[in-house]
Design goal:
It contains 20 helices and 14 strands. By secondary structure, the chain is of the alpha/beta class. It has a five-stranded parallel sheet, sandwiched between helices. It has a five-stranded parallel sheet with strand order 7-8-11-6-12. α4 (about 90-100) links the parallel β4 (about 80-85) and β5 (about 105). The longest helix is centred in the first third of the chain and has 31 residues, at about 110-140. The chain starts with 7 loop residues before the first strand and ends with a helix.
Length: about 450
């Protein structure tokens, strides 16, 4: 049975008996089928909850198959529509195809013939969806399709990715902000049997709880204020592939429960829907937090943690792989030049690279990349020298990282986080926007934590 079996199909025919017969046949073939006895009813159903495929009769009173085709594509142009009719005029067939129909069938037809085109339509949609995800990934990642470096920690990381990638088991990627956790997730997907299927990423801290639930699980039309059209949700978009959940530790408790159900049963229920949909998705989650501590504090579900923590991959911080900095610098210079073709800078002098390698890089690889791009944009020379680095990427002497101090004198996680944020702000010369980029958080979080620290009793 292919992955398309189990997809949702809407059959539209103003002859109810014909619609039910076709629905029964498709249901027997493993699809989830709904019927509409007329174009008007079909459009109401499509606007409420999107199917994966529509099969519609062409000749219907008032709202015909062309109206259905147009209405479906107004809601979602990617939903394929197969048109069927007892009137086999070639002009009508050509018109249907020109208007965007996937295929045209003349009644009567054999079930086998219909199934061939149903599978083709669903497979075509899946390929186009995967290609769009791949295009976006290429646009976003540029040349970051591989993990750069040959240090011992990176060799161990690559070996673990190679061993974990073939498994469909959930994976938990752990690492400080800016270490490249999403790049590790993409590498896992690229080396998996699902490499040709979608890779879909979402940051669990980027959206409020209500929007995150809709983003993940989808919703029906009218499910809440502002839901003017149905949405499939990222689980359905990632069906057959990988869903990457960045910063899973910040996921609200109510969504943790729904996430657990998907992992246990492989089912998602859109907001406002009466039915569930089966999905086949590999979950890769990432966090910069100690999830076990959050479990102990009652802030993260233990059962979800155990479900996610099947394969654990720890991404090393840049300070533990300083040998990779020269290679990373070369990679980032090339990438920055592609984004800034008018730049004069072409490479960094050896002493400049050596100077960069002496930093502890609290923002890790992300911080290094941002510094390199700044140098490429602002340097007036082809060869970026040590003086350029010291002038364009100054580093105040703010003492050792709080992480180093915590090794000698343990402290609470909250105190360590506050101290680390303040330390990064100081290293960025007081520029909180820059510090937020380094930390991988919103600048409002820095302001809020400072207000809370100031207001706390001494």
């Amino acid at each position: 049975m292919t992955r398309q079996r189990g997809a949702r199909i809407l059959v539209v025919d103003d002859h109810a008996e014909m619609a039910r017969m076709l629905a029964d046949q498709l249901g027997g073939a493993g699809f989830v089928v709904d019927c509409a006895t007329g174009g008007r009813e079909a459009l109401r159903k499509v606007e409420s909850e999107l199917p994966d495929l529509v099969i519609t009769d062409l000749r219907m009173e008032k709202v015909d198959g062309f109206d259905v085709l147009e209405g479906v594509h107004e809601v979602d142009p990617e939903v394929p529509v197969i048109v069927m009719t007892a009137f086999g005029a070639i002009e009508t067939a050509v018109d249907a195809i020109k208007r965007g129909a996937f295929h045209y069938l003349t009644k009567p037809f054999q079930l086998g013939e219909m199934l061939v085109f149903v599978e083709r339509a669903l497979a075509d949609r899946s390929v186009r969806s995967a290609n769009e995800v791949l295009r976006r990934a290429v646009d976003e990642q540029g040349a970051a399709g591989e993990i750069v470096g040959t240090s011992a920690p990176i060799r161990a990381l690559k070996d673990l990715i190679a061993r974990a990638a073939p498994s469909p088991a959930p994976a938990l990627v752990i690492g400080e902000s800016g270490t490249g956790k999403e790049l590790v997730a993409r590498a896992l997907h690229a080396a998996s049997p699902q490499r040709d299927q979608p890779f879909v990423a979402v940051n669990c801290t980027a959206l409020p709880e209500s929007l995150l639930e809709s983003e993940l699980f989808g919703h029906t039309r009218g499910a809440f204020s502002g839901a003017t059209a149905p949405r499939r949700g990222l689980f359905v978009e990632a069906d057959g592939g990988t869903l990457f959940l960045d910063e899973i530790g910040d996921m609200p408790g109510t969504l943790q429960s729904k996430m657990l159900r998907v992992l246990q049963d492989g089912e998602v229920r859109p907001i406002g829907a009466d039915t569930v949909r089966r999905v086949d998705v590999r979950i890769i989650a990432a966090t910069n937090q100690d999830l076990q501590s959050r479990v102990d504090a009652g802030q993260f579900r233990a059962d979800l943690f155990f479900r996610l923590n099947v394969v654990t991959i720890v991404v090393p911080p840049l300070r533990d792989r300083a040998d990779d900095i020269p290679a990373l610098v070369d990679s980032f210079v090339a990438r920055a030049r592609r984004r800034n073709p008018a730049s004069r800078a072409r490479r960094l002098a050896p002493e400049a690279v050596e100077h960069l390698a002496s930093y502890s890089w609290p923002g890790n690889v992300r911080e290094l990349e941002n510094v390199i791009e700044r140098l490429v944009i602002l340097s007036p020379r082809e060869l970026v020298g040590l003086d350029d680095v010291e002038r364009l990427a100054p580093r105040p002497d703010v003492g050792p990282s709080p992480l180093e101090a915590a090794r000698e004198q343990p402290t609470t996680l909250r105190e360590l986080e506050d101290a680390y944020i303040a330390w990064v702000v100081a290293r960025c010369g007081g520029n909180k926007t820059r510090a937020a980029e380094v930390l991988g958080i919103d600048v409002s979080t820095i302001h809020r934590r400072e207000r809370e620290r100031t207001a706390a009793p001494q």
